[in-house]
Amino acid sequence: MENLDLIVLRTLRDWRLQGKHAVLATVTRTWGASPRPVGSLMALCETGSVVGSVSGGCIEDDLITRFTNKDAFLNEKGQARRPQWDCYGLSADEAHRFGLPCGGTLELLLEFNPDAHALEQLVSQLEAGALVQRTVDLVSGAVALAPADRPSALAVTKFAMKAVFGPGYRMLLIGAGQLTEYLATMAAFSGFSVTVCDPRDEYRRGWSVPNVRFVEGMPDDAVYEMKPDQRTCVIALTHDPKLDDLALMEALVSPAFYVGAIGSRRNNTARRERLAEHFEVSGENLARLHGPVGIYIGSKTPSEIAISIMAEVVAAKNGIQRPDLDVAINKKKHEFEDAVPAMHMS
């Protein structure tokens, strides 16, 4: 599944190149519970067509009602309006009206008739795999594009909004077994660009998951060539130290936001010892290794195990840190592993 931001920006570009009025809405701040995170995008055309989302639907309906009139996009001089702040859910009644949960409040920045050629330039750079910072002057509405060296959160001041756009999240899976098929499918559905590496002929011949890139080389070469960044995760799933360890020793010294490996606690302890002794992986980098991989849910089948892994990856991607819950989950996981050597813990 393609990066949602790119889909929104590409559609908005097409509308503007066709000469249609359009508005780009960006979630800039939230208070309380919010259906969509800061940085979420939605584009709305004068025809009422919408792409992307800033809420669960009710706010989109209100925006459509307000901006399907051409005059709503222009000032009294017939020029595109300057960027405008909009806030939904300031009162309990309004929060209920717009379907915002738990009295949440949502702040949007609306950009009217963004420049078509600037959008074309931005989309072209993103399609080429570049990381781009887009800065909006909140006084004039002018937009500037500049290369970015790393992903970063949306930044807003009284004078400018800066957003970094780039390639979507990537996942590299080592091993092409049945578990990988389930995990690759879930990851692709969740918006990840998925690559599977397995040098073994018997697994390569049986691979049939669509929209997933397959590479045949050695795992360490696959990691090196992928150049993991802060939007990349690497997961070793072969149970074969000769393959898994090669991938892990490269991934653990990269900026990848998540590195994991399948196996029991005993096997993962042995793996850490091997990586430290034979590959000189530092203790600091070994501390980044998730293993046994996945959140404990009592999973026993490949599909359930894939769910547990995907849940942990998404939590890491979203920066979720809940130490108390992690302690409870790990305790249950360890009890389960000691009692039942499940197929993914072998």
Summarize the structure.
With 346 residues, the chain is of the alpha/beta class. The protein has two domains: 4-128, no CATH class; 170-345, 3-Layer(aba) Sandwich (Rossmann fold). It is built from twelve helices and 15 strands.
Features:
346 residues, Rossmann fold, six-stranded parallel beta sheet, five-stranded antiparallel beta sheet, 12 helices, 15 strands, disordered C terminus, XdhC family protein
Secondary-structure blueprint:
Blueprint: H1 4-17, E1 22-31, E2 41-45, E3 50-52, H2 58-66, E4 84-88, H3 92-97, E5 105-112, H4 116-127, E6 132-137, E7 143-147, E8 155-156, E9 160-165, E10 170-174, H5 178-189, E11 193-197, H6 201-205, E12 213-215, H7 219-226, E13 232-236, H8 241-251, E14 258-261, H9 265-278, H10 283-286, E15 289-290, H11 302-317, H12 323-339
Parallel strand pairs: 10-11, 10-13, 11-12, 13-14, 14-15
Antiparallel strand pairs: 1-2, 1-5, 2-3, 4-5, 6-7, 6-9, 8-9
Helix pairs in contact: 1-4, 5-11, 7-8
Pfam families: XdhC_C, XdhC_CoxI
Domain XdhC- CoxI: 15-66
InterPro entries: MoCofactor_Util/Proc (IPR052698), XdhC_CoxI (IPR003777), XdhC_Rossmann_dom (IPR027051)
